[in-house]
Design goal:
Fumarase C, Chain B, domain 1; Ribonucleotide Reductase Protein R1, domain 1; two-stranded antiparallel sheet; two-stranded parallel sheet; 6 strands; binds arginine
Length: about 475
Protein backbone atom coordinates (compact mmCIF):
# COMPACT_ATOMS: atom_id res chain seq x y z
CA UNK A 1 0.00 0.00 0.00
CA UNK A 2 1.22 3.45 -0.77
CA UNK A 3 -0.56 6.42 0.69
CA UNK A 4 1.79 9.10 -0.45
CA UNK A 5 1.81 8.26 -4.12
CA UNK A 6 4.56 6.85 -6.28
CA UNK A 7 8.10 8.04 -6.54
CA UNK A 8 8.01 9.76 -9.90
CA UNK A 9 11.11 11.71 -10.67
CA UNK A 10 9.17 14.27 -12.64
CA UNK A 11 6.00 16.23 -12.04
CA UNK A 12 2.79 15.48 -13.84
CA UNK A 13 1.10 18.10 -16.00
CA UNK A 14 -1.51 18.49 -13.32
CA UNK A 15 0.65 18.45 -10.18
CA UNK A 16 -0.54 21.88 -8.97
CA UNK A 17 -3.90 20.68 -7.68
CA UNK A 18 -2.46 17.59 -5.94
CA UNK A 19 -0.68 17.29 -2.63
CA UNK A 20 0.83 13.93 -3.50
CA UNK A 21 2.14 12.36 -6.66
CA UNK A 22 0.28 9.64 -8.52
CA UNK A 23 0.35 6.05 -7.29
CA UNK A 24 2.40 3.65 -9.34
CA UNK A 25 -0.68 1.53 -10.01
CA UNK A 26 -2.51 4.57 -11.35
CA UNK A 27 0.28 5.30 -13.78
CA UNK A 28 0.61 1.66 -14.80
CA UNK A 29 -3.06 1.45 -15.53
CA UNK A 30 -3.66 4.79 -17.20
CA UNK A 31 -0.57 5.54 -19.27
CA UNK A 32 -1.09 5.43 -23.02
CA UNK A 33 2.47 6.24 -24.06
CA UNK A 34 3.32 2.68 -25.15
CA UNK A 35 0.73 2.90 -27.91
CA UNK A 36 0.19 6.62 -28.56
CA UNK A 37 3.88 7.20 -29.25
CA UNK A 38 3.05 6.66 -32.85
CA UNK A 39 1.12 9.94 -32.80
CA UNK A 40 4.36 11.82 -32.09
CA UNK A 41 4.75 13.33 -35.55
CA UNK A 42 1.10 14.41 -35.66
CA UNK A 43 1.38 15.84 -32.16
CA UNK A 44 4.35 17.97 -33.18
CA UNK A 45 2.55 19.09 -36.36
CA UNK A 46 -0.48 20.08 -34.27
CA UNK A 47 1.70 21.94 -31.77
CA UNK A 48 3.43 23.95 -34.50
CA UNK A 49 0.06 25.10 -35.85
CA UNK A 50 -1.10 25.92 -32.32
CA UNK A 51 2.02 28.03 -31.73
CA UNK A 52 1.41 30.00 -34.93
CA UNK A 53 -2.20 30.52 -33.82
CA UNK A 54 -0.98 31.82 -30.45
CA UNK A 55 1.25 34.27 -32.30
CA UNK A 56 -1.70 35.53 -34.37
CA UNK A 57 -3.63 36.00 -31.11
CA UNK A 58 -0.61 37.82 -29.64
CA UNK A 59 -0.43 35.28 -26.85
CA UNK A 60 3.16 34.45 -27.81
CA UNK A 61 5.67 36.99 -29.11
CA UNK A 62 8.06 36.30 -31.98
CA UNK A 63 10.98 35.30 -29.77
CA UNK A 64 8.89 32.96 -27.67
CA UNK A 65 7.38 31.33 -30.75
CA UNK A 66 10.81 30.90 -32.30
CA UNK A 67 12.08 29.25 -29.11
CA UNK A 68 9.12 26.87 -28.93
CA UNK A 69 9.25 26.01 -32.64
CA UNK A 70 12.99 25.34 -32.41
CA UNK A 71 12.37 23.11 -29.39
CA UNK A 72 9.70 21.23 -31.33
CA UNK A 73 12.27 20.70 -34.10
CA UNK A 74 14.70 19.31 -31.52
CA UNK A 75 12.04 17.01 -30.09
CA UNK A 76 11.17 15.80 -33.55
CA UNK A 77 14.81 15.00 -34.21
CA UNK A 78 15.30 13.27 -30.85
CA UNK A 79 12.23 11.12 -31.46
CA UNK A 80 13.38 10.26 -34.97
CA UNK A 81 16.94 9.32 -34.05
CA UNK A 82 15.97 7.53 -30.84
CA UNK A 83 17.72 9.92 -28.46
CA UNK A 84 14.49 11.16 -26.87
CA UNK A 85 14.49 10.09 -23.23
CA UNK A 86 11.07 9.33 -21.79
CA UNK A 87 10.58 9.77 -18.04
CA UNK A 88 8.17 7.88 -15.77
CA UNK A 89 5.74 10.81 -15.53
CA UNK A 90 5.22 10.85 -19.31
CA UNK A 91 1.63 9.66 -19.31
CA UNK A 92 1.20 9.95 -23.02
CA UNK A 93 3.00 11.34 -26.03
CA UNK A 94 1.40 14.77 -25.57
CA UNK A 95 2.78 15.03 -22.04
CA UNK A 96 6.19 13.82 -23.13
CA UNK A 97 6.52 16.29 -25.99
CA UNK A 98 5.40 19.26 -23.89
CA UNK A 99 7.71 18.32 -21.03
CA UNK A 100 10.70 18.12 -23.33
CA UNK A 101 9.80 21.35 -25.17
CA UNK A 102 9.71 23.13 -21.83
CA UNK A 103 13.07 21.66 -20.81
CA UNK A 104 14.60 22.93 -24.05
CA UNK A 105 12.80 26.25 -24.53
CA UNK A 106 12.55 27.30 -20.89
CA UNK A 107 9.68 29.57 -19.79
CA UNK A 108 8.41 30.05 -23.35
CA UNK A 109 7.75 26.30 -23.48
CA UNK A 110 5.36 26.73 -20.59
CA UNK A 111 3.16 28.79 -22.92
CA UNK A 112 2.72 26.01 -25.52
CA UNK A 113 -0.36 24.63 -23.86
CA UNK A 114 -2.09 28.03 -23.69
CA UNK A 115 -5.76 27.68 -24.62
CA UNK A 116 -5.27 24.02 -25.38
CA UNK A 117 -6.21 20.81 -23.63
CA UNK A 118 -5.05 17.31 -24.31
CA UNK A 119 -8.69 16.70 -25.15
CA UNK A 120 -8.68 18.81 -28.31
CA UNK A 121 -5.01 17.94 -28.89
CA UNK A 122 -5.51 14.17 -28.93
CA UNK A 123 -8.58 14.48 -31.15
CA UNK A 124 -6.55 16.62 -33.56
CA UNK A 125 -3.67 14.15 -33.61
CA UNK A 126 -5.93 11.18 -34.17
CA UNK A 127 -7.75 12.89 -37.03
CA UNK A 128 -4.45 13.70 -38.71
CA UNK A 129 -3.41 10.07 -38.27
CA UNK A 130 -6.75 8.74 -39.56
CA UNK A 131 -6.68 10.93 -42.67
CA UNK A 132 -3.26 9.59 -43.56
CA UNK A 133 -4.10 5.98 -42.64
CA UNK A 134 -7.25 5.96 -44.78
CA UNK A 135 -5.22 7.24 -47.73
CA UNK A 136 -2.50 4.63 -47.12
CA UNK A 137 -5.02 1.81 -46.99
CA UNK A 138 -6.81 3.17 -50.08
CA UNK A 139 -3.50 3.16 -51.95
CA UNK A 140 -2.88 -0.50 -51.05
CA UNK A 141 -6.43 -1.45 -51.94
CA UNK A 142 -5.76 -0.11 -55.41
CA UNK A 143 -2.59 -2.18 -55.67
CA UNK A 144 -4.66 -5.29 -54.96
CA UNK A 145 -7.27 -4.15 -57.47
CA UNK A 146 -4.52 -3.80 -60.06
CA UNK A 147 -3.37 -7.35 -59.35
CA UNK A 148 -6.94 -8.59 -59.86
CA UNK A 149 -7.28 -6.52 -63.03
CA UNK A 150 -4.02 -7.85 -64.47
CA UNK A 151 -5.09 -11.43 -63.69
CA UNK A 152 -8.49 -10.76 -65.25
CA UNK A 153 -6.86 -9.37 -68.40
CA UNK A 154 -4.55 -12.38 -68.58
CA UNK A 155 -7.40 -14.83 -68.15
CA UNK A 156 -9.02 -13.90 -71.49
CA UNK A 157 -11.28 -16.87 -72.40
CA UNK A 158 -10.61 -19.01 -69.32
CA UNK A 159 -13.80 -20.15 -67.62
CA UNK A 160 -14.73 -22.10 -64.52
CA UNK A 161 -17.93 -23.12 -62.80
CA UNK A 162 -19.78 -20.31 -61.09
CA UNK A 163 -21.25 -21.51 -57.80
CA UNK A 164 -24.31 -20.93 -55.72
CA UNK A 165 -24.56 -22.80 -52.41
CA UNK A 166 -21.04 -23.92 -53.38
CA UNK A 167 -22.72 -26.21 -55.94
CA UNK A 168 -21.78 -25.80 -59.59
CA UNK A 169 -24.33 -23.50 -61.16
CA UNK A 170 -23.35 -21.89 -64.48
CA UNK A 171 -19.95 -21.40 -66.10
CA UNK A 172 -18.43 -17.93 -65.77
CA UNK A 173 -15.28 -16.36 -67.18
CA UNK A 174 -12.42 -16.33 -64.70
CA UNK A 175 -12.04 -12.58 -65.38
CA UNK A 176 -15.62 -12.12 -64.30
CA UNK A 177 -15.01 -13.97 -61.05
CA UNK A 178 -11.85 -11.98 -60.30
CA UNK A 179 -13.51 -8.65 -61.05
CA UNK A 180 -16.36 -9.51 -58.67
CA UNK A 181 -13.81 -9.18 -55.88
CA UNK A 182 -12.42 -6.07 -57.58
CA UNK A 183 -15.77 -4.26 -57.44
CA UNK A 184 -16.18 -5.08 -53.74
CA UNK A 185 -12.78 -3.44 -53.21
CA UNK A 186 -13.96 -0.43 -55.24
CA UNK A 187 -16.74 0.08 -52.68
CA UNK A 188 -14.19 -0.28 -49.87
CA UNK A 189 -12.12 2.41 -51.50
CA UNK A 190 -15.11 4.68 -51.74
CA UNK A 191 -15.84 4.21 -48.04
CA UNK A 192 -12.23 4.85 -47.02
CA UNK A 193 -12.19 8.14 -48.92
CA UNK A 194 -15.56 9.18 -47.48
CA UNK A 195 -14.36 8.39 -43.96
CA UNK A 196 -11.25 10.40 -44.65
CA UNK A 197 -13.46 13.34 -45.64
CA UNK A 198 -15.49 13.11 -42.45
CA UNK A 199 -12.31 12.93 -40.38
CA UNK A 200 -11.16 16.10 -42.12
CA UNK A 201 -12.50 18.52 -39.46
CA UNK A 202 -10.21 20.23 -36.97
CA UNK A 203 -11.12 20.05 -33.26
CA UNK A 204 -8.19 22.28 -32.25
CA UNK A 205 -9.41 25.27 -30.24
CA UNK A 206 -12.20 23.37 -28.50
CA UNK A 207 -10.00 23.33 -25.39
CA UNK A 208 -10.97 20.88 -22.67
CA UNK A 209 -14.64 21.11 -23.63
CA UNK A 210 -15.88 24.68 -23.93
CA UNK A 211 -13.50 26.79 -26.00
CA UNK A 212 -11.55 29.63 -24.42
CA UNK A 213 -11.60 33.22 -23.21
CA UNK A 214 -8.32 33.76 -25.04
CA UNK A 215 -8.09 35.00 -28.64
CA UNK A 216 -7.51 31.60 -30.26
CA UNK A 217 -7.89 31.07 -33.99
CA UNK A 218 -9.54 27.67 -34.60
CA UNK A 219 -10.28 28.40 -38.26
CA UNK A 220 -6.71 29.55 -38.82
CA UNK A 221 -5.15 26.49 -37.14
CA UNK A 222 -7.56 24.24 -39.09
CA UNK A 223 -6.37 25.75 -42.37
CA UNK A 224 -2.74 25.63 -41.21
CA UNK A 225 -3.10 21.87 -40.54
CA UNK A 226 -4.73 21.26 -43.92
CA UNK A 227 -8.13 20.40 -42.48
CA UNK A 228 -11.06 21.03 -44.80
CA UNK A 229 -13.26 22.37 -42.00
CA UNK A 230 -13.30 23.46 -38.37
CA UNK A 231 -15.54 22.18 -35.54
CA UNK A 232 -18.90 23.82 -34.85
CA UNK A 233 -19.35 22.68 -31.26
CA UNK A 234 -16.55 22.31 -28.75
CA UNK A 235 -18.31 19.56 -26.75
CA UNK A 236 -18.80 17.52 -29.90
CA UNK A 237 -15.27 18.30 -31.12
CA UNK A 238 -13.56 16.69 -28.12
CA UNK A 239 -15.91 13.73 -27.70
CA UNK A 240 -16.63 12.75 -31.30
CA UNK A 241 -14.99 9.48 -32.31
CA UNK A 242 -17.35 8.73 -35.18
CA UNK A 243 -14.41 8.93 -37.55
CA UNK A 244 -12.66 6.14 -35.64
CA UNK A 245 -15.78 3.97 -35.62
CA UNK A 246 -16.26 4.58 -39.34
CA UNK A 247 -12.65 3.78 -40.08
CA UNK A 248 -12.95 0.56 -38.06
CA UNK A 249 -16.11 -0.37 -39.94
CA UNK A 250 -14.48 0.29 -43.31
CA UNK A 251 -11.49 -1.81 -42.30
CA UNK A 252 -13.68 -4.58 -40.89
CA UNK A 253 -15.73 -4.81 -44.08
CA UNK A 254 -12.59 -4.66 -46.17
CA UNK A 255 -11.27 -7.47 -43.96
CA UNK A 256 -14.46 -9.42 -44.61
CA UNK A 257 -13.91 -9.00 -48.35
CA UNK A 258 -10.32 -10.18 -48.01
CA UNK A 259 -11.54 -13.16 -45.98
CA UNK A 260 -13.82 -14.16 -48.86
CA UNK A 261 -10.91 -14.02 -51.29
CA UNK A 262 -8.90 -15.99 -48.75
CA UNK A 263 -11.54 -18.68 -48.44
CA UNK A 264 -11.68 -19.16 -52.19
CA UNK A 265 -7.92 -19.42 -52.41
CA UNK A 266 -8.02 -22.05 -49.66
CA UNK A 267 -10.63 -24.04 -51.59
CA UNK A 268 -9.15 -23.55 -55.03
CA UNK A 269 -5.68 -24.65 -53.93
CA UNK A 270 -6.92 -28.00 -52.58
CA UNK A 271 -6.35 -31.18 -54.59
CA UNK A 272 -10.13 -31.54 -54.63
CA UNK A 273 -10.61 -28.30 -56.57
CA UNK A 274 -7.18 -28.00 -58.15
CA UNK A 275 -7.93 -24.57 -59.62
CA UNK A 276 -4.94 -22.72 -58.25
CA UNK A 277 -1.26 -23.33 -57.55
CA UNK A 278 0.37 -21.02 -55.05
CA UNK A 279 3.91 -19.86 -55.53
CA UNK A 280 6.37 -21.42 -53.06
CA UNK A 281 7.27 -17.96 -51.73
CA UNK A 282 3.66 -17.37 -50.74
CA UNK A 283 2.89 -20.75 -49.17
CA UNK A 284 4.14 -22.57 -46.12
CA UNK A 285 5.16 -26.12 -45.36
CA UNK A 286 4.29 -28.50 -42.57
CA UNK A 287 6.69 -29.29 -39.75
CA UNK A 288 5.70 -32.97 -39.88
CA UNK A 289 4.15 -33.72 -43.26
CA UNK A 290 6.79 -33.34 -45.96
CA UNK A 291 4.32 -33.22 -48.86
CA UNK A 292 2.27 -30.32 -47.52
CA UNK A 293 1.98 -26.88 -49.08
CA UNK A 294 -0.33 -24.67 -47.11
CA UNK A 295 -2.18 -21.46 -47.99
CA UNK A 296 -1.47 -19.70 -44.68
CA UNK A 297 -1.82 -16.17 -46.06
CA UNK A 298 -5.29 -16.97 -47.33
CA UNK A 299 -6.22 -18.61 -44.04
CA UNK A 300 -5.05 -15.63 -42.00
CA UNK A 301 -6.93 -13.26 -44.31
CA UNK A 302 -9.95 -15.34 -43.37
CA UNK A 303 -9.09 -15.59 -39.68
CA UNK A 304 -8.05 -12.03 -39.00
CA UNK A 305 -11.40 -10.71 -40.18
CA UNK A 306 -12.63 -11.75 -36.73
CA UNK A 307 -10.14 -9.48 -35.06
CA UNK A 308 -11.05 -6.53 -37.30
CA UNK A 309 -14.72 -6.99 -36.47
CA UNK A 310 -13.77 -7.26 -32.79
CA UNK A 311 -11.93 -3.94 -32.95
CA UNK A 312 -15.05 -2.29 -34.37
CA UNK A 313 -17.46 -3.79 -31.86
CA UNK A 314 -15.08 -3.05 -28.99
CA UNK A 315 -14.95 0.63 -29.85
CA UNK A 316 -18.71 0.91 -30.37
CA UNK A 317 -19.26 -0.56 -26.92
CA UNK A 318 -16.74 1.87 -25.44
CA UNK A 319 -18.55 4.82 -27.03
CA UNK A 320 -22.03 3.66 -26.14
CA UNK A 321 -23.57 5.67 -23.31
CA UNK A 322 -20.61 8.01 -22.81
CA UNK A 323 -21.80 11.35 -21.45
CA UNK A 324 -20.46 14.53 -23.02
CA UNK A 325 -17.74 15.52 -23.36
CA UNK A 326 -14.27 13.95 -22.99
CA UNK A 327 -14.03 10.84 -20.82
CA UNK A 328 -10.88 8.84 -20.28
CA UNK A 329 -12.70 5.88 -21.85
CA UNK A 330 -11.91 7.58 -25.15
CA UNK A 331 -8.26 6.66 -24.75
CA UNK A 332 -9.42 3.18 -25.79
CA UNK A 333 -9.95 4.46 -29.35
CA UNK A 334 -6.32 4.18 -30.38
CA UNK A 335 -5.23 0.57 -30.01
CA UNK A 336 -8.07 -0.91 -32.10
CA UNK A 337 -7.57 1.72 -34.77
CA UNK A 338 -3.81 1.21 -34.99
CA UNK A 339 -4.26 -2.56 -34.93
CA UNK A 340 -6.87 -2.62 -37.69
CA UNK A 341 -4.82 -0.32 -39.90
CA UNK A 342 -1.66 -2.40 -39.35
CA UNK A 343 -3.43 -5.68 -39.95
CA UNK A 344 -5.18 -4.52 -43.10
CA UNK A 345 -1.98 -3.12 -44.60
CA UNK A 346 -0.21 -6.43 -43.96
CA UNK A 347 -3.12 -8.42 -45.36
CA UNK A 348 -3.37 -6.30 -48.51
CA UNK A 349 0.34 -6.65 -49.18
CA UNK A 350 0.40 -10.40 -48.59
CA UNK A 351 -2.72 -11.08 -50.67
CA UNK A 352 -1.50 -8.92 -53.54
CA UNK A 353 1.79 -10.84 -53.62
CA UNK A 354 0.08 -14.19 -53.27
CA UNK A 355 -2.42 -13.53 -56.07
CA UNK A 356 0.13 -11.94 -58.38
CA UNK A 357 2.31 -15.06 -58.19
CA UNK A 358 -0.24 -17.86 -58.16
CA UNK A 359 -1.07 -19.83 -61.29
CA UNK A 360 -4.60 -20.71 -62.32
CA UNK A 361 -5.07 -24.33 -63.44
CA UNK A 362 -7.22 -23.55 -66.41
CA UNK A 363 -7.71 -27.15 -67.58
CA UNK A 364 -9.12 -28.16 -64.21
CA UNK A 365 -11.41 -25.14 -64.26
CA UNK A 366 -12.70 -25.95 -67.75
CA UNK A 367 -13.14 -29.64 -66.93
CA UNK A 368 -15.22 -28.75 -63.87
CA UNK A 369 -17.30 -26.26 -65.86
CA UNK A 370 -17.87 -28.49 -68.88
CA UNK A 371 -20.26 -30.86 -67.18
CA UNK A 372 -23.28 -31.07 -69.51
CA UNK A 373 -25.51 -30.35 -66.54
CA UNK A 374 -23.99 -26.88 -66.30
CA UNK A 375 -25.75 -26.01 -69.59
CA UNK A 376 -29.21 -26.91 -68.23
CA UNK A 377 -30.24 -23.25 -68.04
CA UNK A 378 -29.11 -22.74 -71.65
CA UNK A 379 -31.38 -25.59 -72.71
CA UNK A 380 -34.32 -24.04 -70.85
CA UNK A 381 -33.58 -20.64 -72.42
CA UNK A 382 -33.42 -22.34 -75.83
CA UNK A 383 -36.98 -23.53 -75.26
CA UNK A 384 -38.06 -20.08 -74.04
CA UNK A 385 -36.83 -18.59 -77.32
CA UNK A 386 -39.25 -20.90 -79.08
CA UNK A 387 -42.14 -19.66 -76.97
CA UNK A 388 -42.21 -22.24 -74.18
CA UNK A 389 -43.09 -20.61 -70.84
CA UNK A 390 -40.00 -20.69 -68.62
CA UNK A 391 -41.67 -22.74 -65.87
CA UNK A 392 -42.50 -25.45 -68.39
CA UNK A 393 -39.02 -25.29 -69.96
CA UNK A 394 -37.49 -25.67 -66.50
CA UNK A 395 -39.57 -28.83 -65.90
CA UNK A 396 -38.67 -30.36 -69.28
CA UNK A 397 -34.93 -29.85 -68.76
CA UNK A 398 -35.17 -30.94 -65.14
CA UNK A 399 -36.66 -34.22 -66.25
CA UNK A 400 -33.92 -34.77 -68.82
CA UNK A 401 -31.27 -34.10 -66.13
CA UNK A 402 -32.95 -36.54 -63.77
CA UNK A 403 -33.16 -39.24 -66.46
CA UNK A 404 -29.46 -38.77 -67.28
CA UNK A 405 -28.50 -38.86 -63.59
CA UNK A 406 -30.48 -42.10 -63.27
CA UNK A 407 -28.18 -43.58 -65.90
CA UNK A 408 -30.88 -43.89 -68.55
CA UNK A 409 -28.98 -42.08 -71.31
CA UNK A 410 -26.46 -39.27 -71.83
CA UNK A 411 -27.57 -35.64 -71.73
CA UNK A 412 -26.59 -35.30 -75.40
CA UNK A 413 -28.72 -38.29 -76.50
CA UNK A 414 -31.70 -37.27 -74.38
CA UNK A 415 -31.55 -33.69 -75.71
CA UNK A 416 -31.16 -34.88 -79.30
CA UNK A 417 -34.15 -37.19 -78.94
CA UNK A 418 -36.42 -34.66 -77.28
CA UNK A 419 -39.01 -33.30 -79.75
CA UNK A 420 -38.75 -29.70 -78.49
CA UNK A 421 -34.94 -29.67 -78.33
CA UNK A 422 -33.11 -31.80 -80.92
CA UNK A 423 -29.67 -31.56 -82.52
CA UNK A 424 -29.42 -27.75 -82.56
CA UNK A 425 -29.83 -27.80 -78.78
CA UNK A 426 -27.11 -30.44 -78.37
CA UNK A 427 -24.57 -27.85 -79.52
CA UNK A 428 -25.27 -25.94 -76.30
CA UNK A 429 -23.71 -28.82 -74.35
CA UNK A 430 -20.35 -28.48 -76.10
CA UNK A 431 -17.26 -27.59 -74.04
CA UNK A 432 -16.96 -23.85 -73.46
CA UNK A 433 -20.21 -23.02 -75.24
CA UNK A 434 -22.37 -22.17 -72.25
CA UNK A 435 -20.27 -19.28 -70.95
CA UNK A 436 -20.34 -17.56 -74.36
CA UNK A 437 -24.14 -17.36 -74.14
CA UNK A 438 -24.12 -14.96 -71.17
CA UNK A 439 -24.43 -11.72 -73.12
CA UNK A 440 -26.34 -9.26 -70.94
CA UNK A 441 -24.75 -6.24 -69.27
CA UNK A 442 -22.70 -7.23 -66.25
CA UNK A 443 -23.03 -10.90 -67.20
CA UNK A 444 -20.37 -13.61 -67.19
CA UNK A 445 -19.77 -14.02 -70.95
CA UNK A 446 -17.03 -12.58 -73.17
CA UNK A 447 -18.85 -9.52 -74.56
CA UNK A 448 -20.15 -8.08 -71.26
CA UNK A 449 -16.89 -8.98 -69.49
CA UNK A 450 -14.88 -7.03 -72.08
CA UNK A 451 -17.10 -4.00 -71.44
CA UNK A 452 -16.81 -4.58 -67.71
CA UNK A 453 -13.01 -4.68 -67.90
CA UNK A 454 -13.14 -1.25 -69.56
CA UNK A 455 -15.40 0.14 -66.86
CA UNK A 456 -13.20 -1.32 -64.14
CA UNK A 457 -10.05 0.23 -65.66
CA UNK A 458 -11.80 3.58 -65.97
CA UNK A 459 -13.04 3.42 -62.40
CA UNK A 460 -9.58 2.55 -61.12
CA UNK A 461 -8.14 5.55 -62.97
CA UNK A 462 -10.82 7.84 -61.53
CA UNK A 463 -10.22 6.51 -58.03
CA UNK A 464 -6.48 7.09 -58.38
CA UNK A 465 -7.17 10.69 -59.35
CA UNK A 466 -9.63 11.04 -56.45
CA UNK A 467 -7.08 9.79 -53.94
CA UNK A 468 -4.36 12.02 -55.40
CA UNK A 469 -6.54 15.11 -55.19
CA UNK A 470 -7.71 14.27 -51.66
CA UNK A 471 -4.14 13.89 -50.39
CA UNK A 472 -2.94 16.98 -52.27
CA UNK A 473 -5.41 19.23 -50.45
N1 LIG B 1 -4.00 9.95 -23.33
C1 LIG B 1 -5.28 10.57 -23.38
C2 LIG B 1 -6.14 9.94 -24.48
O1 LIG B 1 -5.59 9.29 -25.27
C3 LIG B 1 -5.10 12.02 -23.70
C4 LIG B 1 -6.19 12.87 -23.21
C5 LIG B 1 -6.16 12.95 -21.73
N2 LIG B 1 -7.06 13.93 -21.28
C6 LIG B 1 -7.39 13.99 -20.02
N3 LIG B 1 -8.22 14.90 -19.66
N4 LIG B 1 -6.91 13.14 -19.16
O2 LIG B 1 -7.35 10.09 -24.51
Amino acid sequence: MTDSGGELGERTLWHGRFASGPAEELMDYTVSLPFDRRLAADDITGSRAHVRGLVRGELLDGDEAAAVLAALDDVERELADGTFVFVPSDEDIHTAVERRVTEIAGPAGGKLHTGRSRNDQVATDLRLYTKRAMADVAERVMVLQEVLLAAAEDASEVYLPGYTHLQRAQPVLLSHHLLAHGWALARDLDRLLATRDRADVSPLGAGALAGSSLPLDPAGTAADLGFAAVFDNSLDAVSDRDFVAEALFDLALLGVHLSRIGEEVVLWSTDEFGFLKLDDAYSTGSSMLPQKKNPDIAELARGKAGRLIGNLTGLLVTLKGLPLAYNRDLQEDKEPLFDSVDQILLALGALAGMLATSRFQTDAMAAAADSPYAAATDLAEHLVRQGTPFREAHAIVGEIVRTALDGKGSMADLVADHPALGLSAVELLGPGVSVTRRSTRGGAGPAPVAAQLDRFRTRLGEDRARLASATAR
